């Protein structure tokens, strides 16, 4: 259980922070950038939810919870020591990726195939979901970069890759099942 009695601790006043295993690193450490960006994404999903209803809101709430799981995973670098940890570390699992894939397939079945790229926009919800999509891609890029120098759970990277796809398809759903998508017209302003 998490208990937050005091919000400020002053432990990071010199520019460092604690990872999930207690190690202290600079606040600009690639691992901190990776899980910090997933936290930014979670906030953007919260804003998108202001415009969502029903099943879409429920799905976005599940994603917000997954993003906290993702942050817990990414903030703990020592996967090879998971078995010796006092408490089993929370890691992303294949089932979370599969759930996103199933949801993408179900949403995509409602849509006509694209014949053009689309511009981010249309409805307010769609615009916010496109912001989420691009933030998910940034979180993915940072996590992939981190994985070149440190151990990163492969399921975390898969999840972020699938999540950006989820946001793309959900943005089309939020645009009247794609009927209100704003199509890109190449060279329109030449």
UniProtKB/TrEMBL annotation:
The keyword Transferase applies. The keyword Hydrolase does not apply. Residues 7-173 form the Cobalamin adenosyltransferase-like domain. It comes from the Bacteria. Keywords: ATP-binding, Cobalamin biosynthesis, Nucleotide-binding, Transferase. Pathway: Cofactor biosynthesis; adenosylcobalamin biosynthesis; adenosylcobalamin from cob(II)yrinate a,c-diamide: step 2/7. Its EC number is 2.5.1.17. InterPro entries: CblAdoTrfase-like, CblAdoTrfase-like_sf, PduO-typ. It catalyses: 2 cob(II)alamin + reduced [electron-transfer flavoprotein] + 2 ATP = 2 adenosylcob(III)alamin + 2 triphosphate + oxidized [electron-transfer flavoprotein] + 3 H(+); 2 cob(II)yrinate a,c diamide + reduced [electron-transfer flavoprotein] + 2 ATP = 2 adenosylcob(III)yrinate a,c-diamide + 2 triphosphate + oxidized [electron-transfer flavoprotein] + 3 H(+). GO terms for molecular function: corrinoid adenosyltransferase activity. Belongs to the Cob(I)alamin adenosyltransferase family. PANTHER family: CORRINOID ADENOSYLTRANSFERASE, CORRINOID ADENOSYLTRANSFERASE MMAB. This is Corrinoid adenosyltransferase.
